[in-house]
């Protein structure tokens, strides 16, 4: 997989012109209630809860292949489809959906550059109609897991010993100073949100932010937060900034702490 490919759709007018394209699937990650009040025309709702498996210790882990195949097939996704995910820039849920698709091997996925409110302000097509969920018989999502973009507890321990990996904490400063994975660098995910409803800052701004914190492209980066959703947004920020080796610790601090690992 080419992990240098840009993650964000920079021209939302492109999506506006392709809303009726059967090979383009638009996913709304804002939740069912928001979706019912209005959504991008022809978009299908997808809640992050459908892509999360809660472990015995409470960690919010990515779902297995069988579950992913059911969820994404229901939304008419197969390897021939381009997928665009949107939400609001104050909510990292859309990023968790994008990462889940990438993890299950669907690389033709993008995060819409603007949130839904900005889409409406631009006067682009919206609807309150609920599309049918039935997928054609010839549509089937096949999960091909890319383990290189995910980390677990053991990955963190192994990488810390090698000293060539930067662990990034995507939570708030208060959370970070209260309890964190030892040696992790704070980069609050909100620092990477763009202005004027943009989901992610421009590439050059992201690169400068990361470099100022010592987060450089010559090392592998692993992101974590409380339950893996905010860190998904940071993961996409790093990808957008051109980092080629990035992982998400989806279990995050819940998994780390429940396994009685040291905290600082």
What does this molecule look like?
With 264 residues, the protein is an alpha/beta fold. It folds into two domains: 120 residues, Oxidized Rhodanese, domain 1 (3-Layer(aba) Sandwich), CATH 3.40.250.10; 112 residues, Oxidized Rhodanese, domain 1, CATH 3.40.250. Strand 5 and strand 6 form a beta hairpin. Helix 4 crosses helix 9. The N terminus is likely disordered.
Strand content: 15-25%
Mind telling me the C-alpha Rg?
18 Å
* Mean pLDDT score: 93
Order of helices and strands: EHEHEEEEHEHEHEEHEHEHEHEH
Largest sheet: 5 strands, parallel
Question: Could you give me the name of the CATH homologous superfamily of the largest domain?
Answer: Rhodanese-like domain
Q: Please name the CATH architecture of the largest domain.
A: 3-Layer(aba) Sandwich
Counted beta strands:
14
Individual helix count: 10
Distance between the termini: 35 Å
CATH class of the largest domain: Alpha Beta
Shape: globular
Structural class assignment: alpha/beta
Tell me the helix content: 25-40%
Q: What spatial order of strands do you see in the largest sheet?
A: 1-8-7-2-4
List segments where confidence is low: pLDDT < 50 over at least 5 consecutive residues.
Answer: 1-5
């Amino acid at each position: 997989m080419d992990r240098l490919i840009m993650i964000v759709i920079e021209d939302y007018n492109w999506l506006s012109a392709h809303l009726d394209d059967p090979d383009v699937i638009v996913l709304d990650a804002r939740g069912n209630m928001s979706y019912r009040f209005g959504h991008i025309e022809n978009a299908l709702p997808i809640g992050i809860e459908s892509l999360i498996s809660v472990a015995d210790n409470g960690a919010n882990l990515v779902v297995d292949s069988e579950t992913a195949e059911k969820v994404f097939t229901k939304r008419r996704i197969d390897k021939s489809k381009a997928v665009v995910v949107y939400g609001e820039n104050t909510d990292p849920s859309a990023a968790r959906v994008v990462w889940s698709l990438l993890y299950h091997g669907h690389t033709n996925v993008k995060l819409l550059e603007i949130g839904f409110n900005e889409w409406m302000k631009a006067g682009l097509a919206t609807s309150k109609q609920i599309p049918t969920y039935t997928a054609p018989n010839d549509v089937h999502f096949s999960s091909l897991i890319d383990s290189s973009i995910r980390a677990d507890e053991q990955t963190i321990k192994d990488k810390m010993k090698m000293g060539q990996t930067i662990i990034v904490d995507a939570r708030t400063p208060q959370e970070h100073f209260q309890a964190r994975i030892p040696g992790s660098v704070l980069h609050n995910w909100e620092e990477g949100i763009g202005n004027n409803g943009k989901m992610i800052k421009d590439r050059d701004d992201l690169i400068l932010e990361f470099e100022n914190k010592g987060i450089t492209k010559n090392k592998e980066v692993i992101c974590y937060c409380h339950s893996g959703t905010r860190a998904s947004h940071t993961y996409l920020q790093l990808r957008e900034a051109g980092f080629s080796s990035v992982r998400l610790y989806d279990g995050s601090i819940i998994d780390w702490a429940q396994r009685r690992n040291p905290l600082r």
